[in-house]
Amino acid sequence: MLININLLSLTGTKNPGMKYFFFLLLIWTVIPCYGQNTDSLKKVVFSNSPAQSRLIAATRVAIYPVEQNPAQIIVIAKEGLTLAHKLKRNKAITLLSQTLGKSYDQTNQYDSAAYYYNIAAGILIKTNEQYILTDDYRRLAQGYFKLKNYDKAIAFNNIAILYAPQTGERASLTKALNQAGTFYEAQNNYQQALSYFRQAFDIKDSLNLARQTSENTSETYSHQFMGDVMGSIKQSQSEEEILKTIDIKKSLNDTLALSINYFNLGVLYKNKRLYTQSLDALKNSLQFATQINYADMQRSATNEIADLYEQMGDYKQSLIYLKKHASIKTSGSNTIDELQAKYEIKQREDQVLQQQFEITKRNYWMAGICIFILMMLFGGFFYDKQNKLKQRNAAMQAIIAAEESERRRIAQDLHDSVSQIISAAKINLAVIGGELPFVNEGQKIRFEKVINLVDYGFKEVRTISHNMMPWALHKTGLAQVINQFIENIKNDNITINFFSRGFDSPFDDTVEIILYRVLQESVNNVMKHANANRVDISLIRSEESISLTIEDNGRGFDTTNPDLFKGMGLNNLRSRINFLKGKVEFDSQLNKGTLVSIYIPLANKPL
């Protein structure tokens, strides 16, 4: 029963500076109630006192035995429960709900008892303390069993079985398991009853064996002796050898040896699935063991017979022998019930330790608050870092957009203005050349050179314009634009090989423009500085990523030299790739060429 009231829990006060005030308030309120009967408590609960004082008085009703005046306790506890809900005191709600459940159970109003037990369980589950209600649910199941409402009896008993292991007391679990077996036996469901009884008896057997081992009793040696004898017989002796031994022991009237050998004969037949012969042998073993009061052999034989009947599908007989197995007392000085009593005493000692834990709970609260503050600070730092990253990406995107806009403007001017002027100049020169008489052939050749220079300038302007703004990017795709770029810059001094996959049609504009500028910058660097005669370019797009590699056989450079990365070219290249959340790596050695590898994930890019 919950009778300890935590001051801080009931008042909701978490300020250590106020605890002494509320402690005095508790003393002032509770002392008059101490020793009062339920009538006095009822007057306090239904008075005009502060709600907190009335709630504290109401919780005192939990210490009174419900069987003395359940009706009065119900009235007080209901009013207290209303106050607890209003003040949001979960521990008081739990205590009063459990008290109401006990009271209604006492008055045989089992549905109401179940209702309030479930309220208490709902709160206790959150703190993993639902085991407190184990015995309450078990008694409630007994009530429904008396009414022959077996479904509800089994349902609430299963709740008790579920909660019982958490108490640490094996007695609660064995009682709940035995009760489940009784319920199923009343329904003639012997298979289920057998299952629950066996679980309960197995727990008792394990406790008994643990006691025997710890106390080093003669029973332990008896178990060990049986195990050695039985084990050696199972492994080495045949059916004929055991039957021969039995005949010899019968002539000598050796009852102990007959009990052991009949037992092993029964186990041998059981392993061979000769159930009828096994049953006869085991019953003979039980008969001889009973004659000499050999408790260990009696328990072993009844357990084997119960298991044998279960395998044969006769669950009723199996249940009968399993109960016989449980009823046989061992020869030790302590019974199972005494051992369980020791366990319960140990649990009460644990409850004292639990009170000490309550004293240190505040320290855990403070540690939790500190951890929460640290997590908030970490969250703020992470949010600030993400925000700065977004701002940096936005700034980078704005720079890229501004650069492309400026390139587009210059390219447009070159294409629409300068190239048109040069084209007009070429046409006029051609007309003039057709009208003027040349003095000699040399003058005509020089005039034709002038026209060729103008034509070359026109082509250069067109090339520069297309390199600054690849017009075909939005129409034919990145691969076609790169091919055009390579066609414009190729010469007899260098061979450029280009392989592409996945870019034959237009893709994401931003990604294509950045890739084109990175490739353009890298190839121009090779043309200017690498002194290479071969460049291999690979551009591949898959569903997950884009990879771009540019490899030359030029003079290379020392990648460990930080000065090489201070220029605008490589930094600009890296910033563009970082904007796409990609990676760029340089692999180069002096006189061994250079490999530029670029990887860009496509998790959030359109396909």
TrEMBL record:
Query: Start and end of every Histidine kinase domain?
Result: 409-604
Q: Where are the transmembrane segments?
A: 364-383
Q: Where are the TPR repeats?
A: 174-207
Q: Which reaction does it catalyse?
A: ATP + protein L-histidine = ADP + protein N-phospho-L-histidine
Q: Does the keyword Cell membrane apply?
A: no
Q: Which GO terms describe its molecular function?
A: ATP binding; phosphorelay sensor kinase activity; protein dimerization activity
Q: Know the name of this protein?
A: histidine kinase
Q: Which organism is it from?
A: Mucilaginibacter gossypiicola
